[in-house]
Amino acid sequence: MTDISEQLVDQVNAALRNQTSLRIQGNNTKSELGRSPEEEGEIISTSLHKGVVQYEPVELILTARAGTTLDEIDKVLAEHNQMLACDPRRYNNEATIAGSLASNQSGNARPWLGSLRDHVLGIRLINGKGEHLQFGGQVLKNVAGYDVSRLQAGAMGTLGVITEVSFKVLPKPAHGITLIKELSAEQALREMNQLARSAKPLTGASWVDGKLHLRLQGAQSAVSATAQQWQNELQATILEPEQADVYWHGFREHQLEFYKQRNTGEQLWRFSVKPNAPHFLDDEQWAFNWVGAQRWLKGSFDPQELQDFAGKAGGEVQLYEGGDRSGDISFVTNDTLKKLHQNVKAAFDPQGIFNPGRLYSWL
Amino acid sequence: MLRTAINDASGGSESNISAAVLADELRRFINAEYVITDSETQRVYECDGLAAYCELPLLTVLPETVEQVQKTLQLCHEHSVAVVARGAGTGLSAGATPNKYGVLLSLAKFNQIVDIDPIAGLARVQPGVRNLAISEAAAQYGLYYAPDPSSQIACSIGGNVAENAGGVHCLKYGLTVHNVVQVQFLTVKGEFITLGNEGLDSYGADLLALIHGSEGLLGVITEITVKLLPTPEAAQVILAGFDSVKTAGDAVGEIIARGIIPGGLEMMDSFAIQASEAFAKAGYPVEAKALLLCEVDGTYEEVTEHVETVAALFTELGATSVRISQDDAERMLLWKGRKSAFPAVGRLSADYYCMDGTIPRGQLAHVLTEIDRLSHEYGLRVANVFHAGDGNLHPLILFDSSVEGEFEKTEEFGGRILELCVEAGGCITGEHGVGLEKIHQMAVQFNDQEVSQFHAIKAAFDPGATLNPGKGIPTLKRCQEYRSLHRPEHD
User: What's the pTM?
Assistant: First the structure.
């Protein structure tokens, strides 16, 4: 439990005086995300700014300093049978809460339980004027002022140094069962989309390596009844609980064979599309999660070709890992939108000291 | 009806173009009858759901196409004319009150559901579509749109996005921001922008979230894509009476501690119970000091399991009465009492004023005791309705606007309640927005640096500050004045 916010403010002010840029870092678990900018910048580390500041289990709200690891938060919540419902990627238990928000992390249950963006309620932030500000709060509903807290999700630290995060937590589900079934990619997409439209306690629907996985979680009675029904109707089998945990953990942490069996530097593309968008290319190159709304593709491709597909599929694509990371890895084609991103950046960071070039070459 | 002319609070300034010339220009591309300049016809637009704030605009337009909206914005931008966008006008914070120097831009003609994709669970709709109309259209596919503000029969989805509207099911299903995947809007200059997509997330800073709750200050929304959820198989309501607010509040905490997240969880105090019962005749326990209405939804098995748990818990925690809805008709009747609480309380008085603070649930008993004390201090009655699941408190202050000075007294009382919410660790508005109404209290919740940051965000979208001027974010001067006048002890 240490509060080093004053030192962090001092470091920001020094950078402003010296006109140097800052590279914001927690435990440096996400260095492969975003671009690799030419300018390195001085590291400003929130790693020591840590500790759970407030946690009231009945309020379903926890407040933690930026450098608090998700692992520590998991342990505190587990004492009250609660969890981080958005289930961010843990990165060997070293991921911090602020880094998870800045990169808008989420888990296998994203379509039903949202991402950290959906659960954040308030933040403290040092902006590019060296001001330590507070937005949002420790209540579930708050519409006073602009939603600066959620704006940080995905901003990758380009708008300031997040020093504290308040977010919503939920009770752990009483029971869980995972069903498995062999299917082609196309059949799996059809089946997942169909099942997701029924009012059943589904919290995971993914496909990789020719197998569909469906996770049911919730009240014991509801999970058991649905599992039995789907076992019969879909000819699916129940996966052993330990195997199910390994699978879902592996998908979230990118530890499945699909991810591991990649050549060094091989490109990994991430699509965020309409869940029922059509499938293309060979099955082996793909892994699907979130009912098909998140799709991972391995290999070298013409970015324009992938962008065209993503556009028709109602979404977008980014070069998630590998490839040339000094170029742009996501594509904004609308000049007005580009200008807006630049204006918002300047509103928080007029001198452009925070993580320049991390998100886009032009920001 | 009470009418208060707005003075300096409305912001904005006179443009170099006259109403007559502007109207002529607008009639070049908008049907002449939808460019309204006479005050009699414009009277219906002079206020939103908070009728205490009235103003007539320079003129009113009702464009029928996105291109017409675009041209209107371009024209207004060229002449630095303020623009106030308006949906159904059901807002409760005077966020859509017209600006006397500006154009009132009604989006009422944009009332079409463009497309429903039942497999993807998405509906693409125009901003003037009513909230409830989306669920009605989706019902044939076994789907619905989850956020349900009390005004859902009338309020429009564009306004829901602008205010980040909530409702009685927020704890489990979230606010508007959690249920919208894409927004198309026009900037103040009439430039077209799409935020979000039909997937679940986007690369980069979350501008889609920023638009939610921005109260029409950042752009004019022209299309929205919302998520549709499968209609739960079953839902049941457990109604329980308690002999104190504290016991009822503790029961709420206990339900959550047992790992149950109800679809809806509402509380009413004795005054609200009696008023609602007299109005809706739902069979509420009129002798109770507090009432809890707990709806559990999900699969048949889950609902059966949770209803038993919750009912047993209420009894164990000292409920004076417990009733479980036996069918959908009874469930709707029990909800009717709660949903008609505002008009029911309104019947008991010439006027009422609805507040909208949020507090940590644990502070409920303390905050209600303080409100009761203030009620005696001001000599004004208060009924309390509470979204207990998410901590959003709606005190209804009863007053009579025909009594000289009583509205001003009510406003001051309301302001004290909001400040009390902030002191208790909460905020000044949970779902109604700041608008003109709570602009003073922004100075209590935020310091000057934070307010300046809000102004910088506004300038990133609208450097000339012509979109909905004077709302949402106070000027620094106003903040300082309010703090020195009203809260000297904090200086």
Answer: 0.97
